[in-house]
């Protein structure tokens, strides 16, 4: 991916965090809070693209009761839950045990990109699939929050939106999306903050991949 294309890609990812709310009727299985703006909560439902939902409104069967600071109160299937930024998703309906699955299904957003919440070393992050990235790419802010010892990593040259730079190549203990988990995944920590974590081929290569219209399905190979 060229520097210009990557800059546009990351800019679109940041813009996706302000998508307007749209009506939905599907029953939610997992809900995470990605941000709060005024009385509106940025929700990630069932691994889909983030949606901004105001207090009193409903998205994908999730009703926002209130939102403020770094938390939101929501109602799912008649029960109230408190979501906090940085916490894992609230799961309703008995999700499979973490790491027991082998299939990931992702839905494209309106720009054709595949967003999904997930976990790195057990800490929640927001991924965007980037098939042009050799390894997972993590901004320095997320790396610090996760607790990655990137200073001990190997310095490697990389191309960023602002031109050539040096990143730190590290090995992640684990990467999990929904109930699918893999271990020992290479990643590079950039010196710049990023709005999302780019899910590159150090993770994707462990799966067979197929596209069906606006859906991407990953089947675990090893």
Give an overview in words:
With 222 residues, the chain is mainly β. Helices cover 11% and strands 49% of the residues. It contains three helices and 18 strands. A hairpin with a 2-residue loop joins strand 10 (115-120) and strand 11. The model is unreliable at 14-28 (pLDDT under 50).
Structural class: mainly beta
Number of strands: 18
What radius of gyration results from the CA coordinates? Answer: 17 Å
Unreliable stretches: 14-28
Overall geometric form = globular
What's the multimeric state? single chain
Count of helical regions: 3
Topology as a string of helices (H) and strands (E): HEEEEEEEEEEEEHEEEEHEE
Kindly, what is the distance between the CA atoms of the first and last residues, rounded to a whole number of angstroms?
A: 27 Å
Give the mean pLDDT: 81
Helix content: 10-25%
* Major pleated sheet: 7 strands, mixed
What is the beta-strand fraction? over 45%
């Amino acid at each position: 991916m060229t520097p210009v294309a990557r800059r546009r890609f990351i800019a679109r990812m940041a813009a996706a965090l302000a998508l307007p709310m749209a009506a939905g009727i599907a029953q939610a299985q997992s809900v995470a809070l990605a941000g709060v703006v005024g009385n509106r909560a940025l929700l990630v439902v069932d691994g889909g693209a983030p949606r901004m939902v105001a207090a009193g409104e409903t998205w994908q069967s999730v009703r926002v009761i209130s939102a403020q600071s770094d938390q939101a109160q929501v109602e799912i299937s008649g029960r109230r839950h408190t979501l906090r930024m940085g916490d894992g998703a609230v799961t309703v309906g008995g999700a499979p045990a973490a790491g027991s699955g082998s299939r990931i299904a992702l839905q494209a957003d309106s720009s054709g990109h595949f967003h999904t919440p997930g976990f790195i070393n057990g800490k929640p992050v927001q991924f965007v699939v980037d098939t042009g990235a050799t390894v997972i790419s993590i901004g320095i802010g997320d790396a610090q929050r996760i607790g990655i010892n990137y200073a001990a990593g190997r310095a490697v040259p990389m191309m960023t939106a602002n031109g050539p730079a040096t990143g730190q190549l590290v090995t992640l203990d684990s990467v999990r999306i929904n109930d699918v988990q893999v271990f020992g995944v290479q990643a590079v920590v950039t010196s710049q903050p990023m709005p999302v974590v780019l899910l590159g081929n150090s993770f994707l290569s462990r799966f067979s991949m197929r596209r069906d219209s606006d859906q991407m399905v990953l089947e675990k190979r090893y």
